[in-house]
Amino acid sequence: MEQLSSKIYKKEFVEAFAGDDSGTLTPRQTPGVFYSKAKPTPVEKVTLLAWSEELAKELGIARPTEQQDVDILGGNRVTDSMYPYAACYAGHQFGNWAGQLGDGRAITLGEWEAPDGKTWELQLKGAGLTPYSRRADGRAVLRSSVREYLMSEAMHYLGIPTTRALSLVSTGEPVLRDMFYNGNAAYEPGAIVMRVAPSFLRFGNFEMLNARKEVDNLRQLVDWTISRYYPHITGENKVIDWFKEVVDRTARLMVEWMRVGFVHGVMNTDNMSILGLTIDYGPYSFVDNYDPNFTPNTTDLPGRRYAFGKQPSIGYWNLGALAGALLPLADKDQLVATLETFKDVYWTEYYAMMGRKLGLDQVSQLDRDLISQFEKTLADIQPDMTIFYQLLIDLPLSVENEDEVAEHFQKALYDDLTPEQKTALYTLISHYLERLNTNKIKRSASQDMMRKANPRFVLRNYLLHQAIEGLEKGDDALLVKLQEAIKEPYSNKFDEFFQTRPGWASEKAGCSMLSCSS
Ligand code: AMP
Ligand code: MG
């Protein structure tokens, strides 16, 4: 285990690429460079609120006990081997080209080489102004930092590709936020997350270089990304082969989000990882009631571009934007043809995933119809997605009548069923039981498969809301408990949380919908 303050950090990204070394933080366009030096702005007092013990072990990072190590987590200390920088990227926001964006409040300190030889970017989120802060303050509030810290770790334990979070610290400084964008700004406690990933490169890094017609820079970034993160890809056709893999990873990520009911909320191209990771946790949510039209982001109304059910098609749209950025480096027809493989990959993986959720030995064409029937009936009845699938695991193998079925799923329901809904649910379950009868695997094997595909604990927004309220009053009991619960999402160990979203949380800000203000 090594201390944060005595580690010799690597800086291969800054050594490989041109950057703006001036260190000035004045907001500006930075053509010709990939990043700008940006030292974190020190805060009042860095206090450790949460630490990801297992991640730290994996990376070989000693838990900070001295203030000089804690200070690194809050940007109050930068060591000699670090080179703090903010990356320059662009993006499409809500479908529109937004030009240069960049890390407005994220600062990479350096690259940490773990005992297994892998390197991880250590990045502070909320560490102060950078040249890309535009008119914002470069800070983050406790509310949004707790959300990023817990949820990125929760996604990891769900088995979903994601950036990770090593620590959460408070800054001792207030941060002004207009949470509802209605002119009622208020001070909130400030915080900083240290997040880690092999790379935080986004689609937007590539879009930026293409938009600026910096073709040599674009080629350099693509070559570097391939050799460093996709080293098995070589040869003549490597740009297309690599793009194909980004398409595959993104399609698989969308399948995973659909599996657990995760709604990202801001799928702008600057929030799409080139490694296929879930990145940038903002106004995300799990669906509680199964509603394909649900968006957790108030800024996403009324269009609902980033609604639960639209995520796969937005993933595809975003890959289209990436393909556009790669045009100077590859044949257009090949790029388009590769992009078009998204649908095949997505649907193949999607049905396989649904087969596991339903405990099927294989997924035939007829099974695809059954899966559609599940989707339609769930969208109509809108039971709690997580609880519904848990109850499905323990479904009796024969059911007598509609009432018995409705009773079985009672715990998952938010509303009383209409007579039509009761019939639809009974019909669905009857079809499903007929299908289970033809399974060539044992019932217990089918149920095991379902237990691995269907989480029993998901980090619901209202739980986060309660944990944040507690923390703001200095009580970290729920935060500590949730930190444990996220590690065992497929077990029944934390069944105290196996409940539908409570009534009070349906309309409360932060519990169902959130703004981008963070
Ligand atoms: P997001 O929607 O969080 O992905 O942010 C979009 C862009 O706004 C990115 O370039 C962020 O770095 C920037 N940004 C968001 N919040 C802040 C902030 N408080 N200070 C500076 N830049 C910010
Ligand atoms: Mg972002």
TrEMBL record:
Cofactors: Mg(2+); Mn(2+)
- What is this protein identified as? Protein nucleotidyltransferase YdiU
Q: Which reaction does it catalyse?
A: L-seryl-[protein] + ATP = 3-O-(5'-adenylyl)-L-seryl-[protein] + diphosphate; L-histidyl-[protein] + UTP = N(tele)-(5'-uridylyl)-L-histidyl-[protein] + diphosphate; L-tyrosyl-[protein] + UTP = O-(5'-uridylyl)-L-tyrosyl-[protein] + diphosphate; L-seryl-[protein] + UTP = O-(5'-uridylyl)-L-seryl-[protein] + diphosphate
Q: In UniProt terms, what function does this protein have?
A: Nucleotidyltransferase involved in the post-translational modification of proteins. It can catalyze the addition of adenosine monophosphate (AMP) or uridine monophosphate (UMP) to a protein, resulting in modifications known as AMPylation and UMPylation.
**Active-site residues (renumbered):** 270 (proton acceptor)
Superkingdom, taxonomy of origin: Bacteria
Gene name, per UniProt, is ydiU
Q: Where does ATP bind?
A: 102, 104-105, 125, 137-138, 195, 202, 280
Entry keywords, A to Z: ATP-binding, Magnesium, Manganese, Metal-binding, Nucleotide-binding, Nucleotidyltransferase, Transferase
